[in-house]
């Protein structure tokens, strides 16, 4: 475990932005409650504007990006504050979810006066920084709808209560976990709120014997590799006999709109956050392994990061040194970042010499490309049909849709459960958590589109045409093209570098054109080849690539390794593309009849080779 940054004001949730930097929600300086006027009934004196969202580089440089967010203190000072708790970066904007500790039971409005205007809201600000503005307010929705009807509320607890605590980009909008309302809500692009699910009550033991029916208290959200929403709960709140202890009694639920929540993982304690690694395995962050009634004096019992394995077993990745961690994010290299000492301010806290911090933990068994470590791949046909195998999920297709032009390629989201299809007119079809960022579907092109490559963070993509014209969307940066050059053969594919700082184009004769930070490692441009090149696949390091020919010939350059080919084999149908495995230990070739050929450590997980297809397969991704 390595400390990346310290001196933070009560860091809660965090996320990784398109530039690889961390964005951290910091609740505030914990001094608002020390105002003598901060007593019950005069809530306005309990708020200041010390909440921030900070950008932290992997090297530990900290910059305040969004400032002036409301932070609620406790009467009499001391203890933890409430404020901006969750953060997301989507389409060039920062989104934050801000807690609320008290609402008017009739109107749902916050009761903290002008300084608390954004309490209980989903807010946004430019990625470069600036003033936060409100997109949705959850208190009024709770007062008007009260989805859980106050079930499980303890003595003196209001039946109408709202404390939004986490947010995640979901289905073209945002899912929000309201910890006090015990529900999961959806906010669409227009800021309208609806209910996705209400979590069930849980039974927990009470010290001295017996059990208590407790409220679930959803604290954390993540979108899974199957496109479903997952929610973790804190537990242990409410009940006629007081709070129960939640050791081993809380769960992670899987939520599909229109269906009741189902338990995905159980036997957990005091969940603060959840995430999925790049192999689609659930990670759970426990705040305190001894639960809400931790008897420890001084520092509490440590938290833990627990991985839920494919067979349902649990592996503890880290525990010692995790003290009241409240947020977690997974980097592409498998490193896990966590907010630590999440209830401590930067200075003047109850434990001298300690402050909020962010730490990095290395998973001893890191994951690679989403789903690939569990075995899998995805095929697309020219009619937009999608065929998934192994751990790659199906999230929809254009198979039953009338298309203006045929689909020519497929690309999986490198960091989330989803994919894009691209048609020869540049129409783009997005599925799962992959967003639509633009297309050339209504543009007059000189040559047809032949491929799509996503950016490393999945928040943009490049389209390439047969003349080498490149079209950039989302956070994809244009690095150059061959659109104005006379080519010997048409361009047939594109691959991006791991940092998104460049890309390669490959022509049918195997000529390779490098742009941005993409290095040239060789080509077949001056070599006689038996069949034309149909695609390019870059190695995970970006220091090499494979060129794939229609007869299944494979040409490896840079740090790409040759593991075999079908170059001398009679094929039922031509090869249309290839995909290198995450560890560069093998690759798959896909044929137009849906046949799959695996070499090296590429594990065969199925094919469409024996199926009668409506249209030929055109790509693998």
CATH level-3 fold name of the largest domain: Neuraminidase
Tell me, what's the shape?
A: elongated
Structural class determined from secondary elements: mainly beta
Treating each run of at least 4 consecutive H or I residues as one helix, how many helices?
A: 1
Cα(first) to Cα(last) distance is 34 Å
CA gyration radius, whole angstroms: 26 Å
Overall description:
The chain is an all-beta fold. The chain has 2 domains: 2-362, TolB, C-terminal domain (Neuraminidase); 372-620, Methylamine Dehydrogenase, Chain H. It is elongated. The chain starts with a strand and ends with a strand.
Topology overview:
Layout: E1 2-8, E2 11-16, E3 22-26, E4 47-56, E5 62-72, E6 84-90, E7 93-98, E8 121-126, E9 133-137, H1 138-145, E10 164-170, E11 173-178, E12 183-187, E13 193-198, E14 202-205, E15 211-214, E16 218-223, E17 229-233, E18 250-255, E19 262-268, E20 271-276, E21 282-286, E22 304-308, E23 314-318, E24 327-330, E25 335-340, E26 356-362, E27 376-381, E28 386-390, E29 407-412, E30 418-423, E31 428-432, E32 449-454, E33 460-465, E34 470-474, E35 491-496, E36 502-507, E37 512-516, E38 533-538, E39 544-549, E40 554-558, E41 575-580, E42 586-591, E43 596-600, E44 617-620
Antiparallel strand pairs: 1-26, 2-3, 3-4, 4-5, 6-7, 7-8, 8-9, 10-11, 11-12, 12-13, 14-15, 16-17, 17-18, 18-19, 20-21, 21-22, 22-23, 24-25, 25-26, 27-28, 27-44, 29-30, 30-31, 32-33, 33-34, 35-36, 36-37, 38-39, 39-40, 41-42, 42-43
């Amino acid at each position: 475990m390595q400390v990346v940054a310290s001196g933070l004001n009560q860091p809660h949730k965090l996320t990784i932005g398109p530039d690889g930097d961390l964005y951290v929600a910091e609740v505030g300086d914990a001094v608002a409650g020390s105002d003598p006027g901060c007593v019950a009934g005069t809530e306005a004196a309990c708020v200041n504007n010390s909440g921030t969202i900070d950008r932290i580089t992997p090297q530990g440089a900290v910059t305040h990006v969004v400032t002036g967010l409301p932070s609620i203190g406790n009467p009499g000072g001391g203890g933890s504050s409430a404020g901006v708790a969750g953060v997301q970066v989507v389409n060039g904007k920062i989104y934050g979810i801000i807690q609320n500790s008290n609402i008017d039971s009739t109107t749902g409005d916050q009761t903290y006066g002008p300084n608390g205007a954004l309490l209980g809201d989903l807010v946004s600000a430019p990625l470069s920084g600036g003033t936060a503005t409100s997109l949705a307010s959850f208190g009024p929705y709770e007062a008007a709808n009260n989805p859980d009807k106050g079930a499980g509320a303890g003595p003196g607890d209001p039946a109408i209560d709202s404390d939004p605590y986490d947010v995640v980009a979901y289905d073209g909008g945002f899912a929000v976990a309201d910890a006090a309302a015990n529900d999961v809500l959806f906010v669409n692009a227009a800021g309208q709120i609806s209910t996705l699910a209400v979590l069930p009550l849980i039974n927990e033991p009470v010290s001295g014997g017996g059990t208590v029916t407790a409220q679930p208290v959803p604290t954390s959200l993540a979108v899974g590799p199957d496109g479903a929403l997952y929610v973790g709960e804190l537990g242990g709140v409410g009940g006629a006999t007081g709070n129960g202890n939640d050791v081993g009694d809380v769960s992670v639920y899987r939520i599909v709109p229109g269906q009741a929540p189902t338990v995905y993982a159980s036997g957990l304690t005091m969940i603060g956050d959840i995430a999925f690694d790049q192999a689609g395995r659930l990670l759970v962050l426990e705040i305190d392994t001894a639960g809400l009634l931790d008897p420890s004096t001084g520092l509490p019992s440590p938290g833990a990061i627990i991985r839920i394995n494919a067979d349902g077993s649990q592996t503890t990745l880290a525990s010692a040194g995790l003290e009241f961690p409240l947020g977690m994010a997974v980097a592409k290299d498998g490193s896990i970042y966590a907010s630590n000492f999440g209830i401590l301010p930067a200075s003047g806290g109850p434990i001298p010499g300690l402050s909020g911090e962010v730490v990095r933990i290395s998973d001893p068994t890191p994951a690679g490309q989403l789903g690939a470590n569990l075995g899998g791949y995805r095929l697309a046909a020219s009619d937009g049909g999608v065929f998934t195998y192994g751990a790659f999920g199906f999230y929809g297709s254009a198979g039953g849709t009338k298309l203006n032009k045929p689909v020519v390629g497929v690309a999986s989201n490198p960091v989330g459960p989803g994919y894009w299809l691209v048609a020869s007119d540049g129409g783009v079809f997005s599925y799962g958590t992959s967003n639509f960022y633009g297309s050339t579907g209504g543009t007059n092109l000189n040559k047809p589109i032949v491929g799509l490559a996503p950016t490393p963070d999945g928040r943009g993509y490049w389209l390439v045409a047969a003349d080498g014209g490149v079209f950039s969307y989302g956070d994809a940066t244009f690095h150059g093209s061959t659109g104005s050059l006379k080519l010997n053969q048409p361009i047939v594919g594109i691959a991006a570098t791991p940092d998104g700082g460049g890309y390669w184009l490959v022509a049918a004769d195997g000529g390779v054109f490098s742009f941005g930070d993409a290095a040239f490692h060789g080509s077949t441009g001056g070599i006689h080849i038996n069949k034309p090149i149909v695609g390019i696949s870059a190695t995970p390091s970006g220091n090499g690539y494979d060129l794939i020919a229609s007869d299944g010939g494979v040409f490896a350059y840079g740090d790409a390794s040759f593991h075999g080919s079908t170059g001398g084999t009679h094929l039922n149908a031509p090869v249309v593309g290839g995909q290198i495995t995450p560890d560069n230990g093998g690759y798959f070739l896909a044929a137009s009849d849906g046949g799959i050929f695996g070499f090296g450590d590429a594990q065969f997980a199925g094919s469409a080779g024996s199926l009668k297809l409506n249209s030929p397969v055109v790509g693998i991704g």
